[in-house]
Amino acid sequence: LMSMVAWMLRFGLFAFGDPSATGFVLLMLSMIVYGCAFDFFNISGSVFVEQEVSAEIRASAQGLFMTTVNGIGAWFGSVLSGMAVDYFSVDGVKDWQTIWLVFAAY
User: Fold this and answer.
1) Which uninterrupted H or E stretch holds 5?
2) pLDDT of 48-102, one tens digit each?
3) What is the rounded distance in angstroms from the CA atom of residue 58 to the CA atom of residue 90?
4) Do residues 48 and 3 make contact, with C-beta atoms less than 8 angstroms apart?
5) Closest Cα to residue 35, out of 12, 3, 69?
6) Global confidence as pTM
7) How many other C-beta atoms can be found within 10 angstroms of the C-beta atom of residue 28?
8) End-to-end CA distance of the chain
């Protein structure tokens, strides 16, 4: 749950952050939140696998978890997020605030 809240917060901060003085603070906060989101997800996933899988197949299960999340999952997420970015683009101009809010809602 903590990881999902952190991801939602991160994308929400991206939606309202910009290079201006005020918006820059939001972008910096999104980078701090990213560390929490990434760590909570990867560490909690590894701990879950550690606790739920027998010792004989633990290394294979950890490898499968990482491949699924950082391999296949990353590829699949890249394809889908690219489609979302293209959907919210008009004549090559991207509506980044809407894009980040859609990602936060997801």
Assistant:
1) helix 2-16
2) 999 999 999 999 999 999 898 889 989 999 999 999 999 999 998 999 999 999 9
3) 48
4) no
5) 3
6) 0.73
7) 12
8) 14
